[in-house]
Amino acid sequence: TIQNRIRAWCEEIAAGKKKKRSGGPIDPNLMSVSDLLSLMTVRTGAYVLAAAAFIFSAGMVAYPIVSQIRAKLGV
Questions:
Q1: Do 61 and 53 form a contact (C-beta atoms < 8 A)?
Q2: Which helix (H) or strand (E) holds 47?
Q3: Is residue 35 a contact partner of residue 20, using CB atoms and an 8 Å limit?
Q4: CB burial class (10 A; 0-12, 13-18, 19+) of residue 56?
Q5: HSE toward the beta carbon, residue 74, CA cutoff 13 A
Q6: Which residue, among 2, 9, 39, 43, has the nearest Cα to 21 in the 3D structure?
Q7: Which of 17, 24, 25, 31 could bond to 35 as cystine, CB 3.0-4.6 Å?
Q8: How confident is the prediction along the chain (75 residues), in pLDDT tens digits per residue?
């Protein structure tokens, strides 16, 4: 039945998560982006979002200045 298939699928996912988290040191070169995000805490996620927002806003502020310099240099 569908209920048994869903239950089996949930058990596979739970077994896979347990398998990934147990073990030795974490090697980010062997992990996917979703694996890295699953290890991220809420606080770390907030820091990453704040850093991305700062970098984006700094780039938007600097864009007119950079384009004026490029225009003067003829680049």
A1: no
A2: helix 42-73
A3: yes
A4: exposed
A5: 0
A6: 39
A7: 31
A8: 788 888 888 887 777 655 555 556 777 777 788 887 887 888 888 888 898 888 888 777 777 887 888 888 887
Three-state SS at 24: coil
How far apart are alpha carbons 75 and 69 in whole angstroms?
A: 9
The answer to whether residues 28 and 36 touch, using CB atoms and an 8 Å cutoff, is yes
Q: Look-up: residue for tokens 């739970």?
A: 14
Residue 19 φ/ψ, nearest 5 degrees? -65, -40
Q: Which two structure tokens, joined as six digits, stand for 6?
A: 């869903």
Using the structure block, give the residue that is written with the tokens 């077994």.
15
- Residue at token pair 């298939």: 5
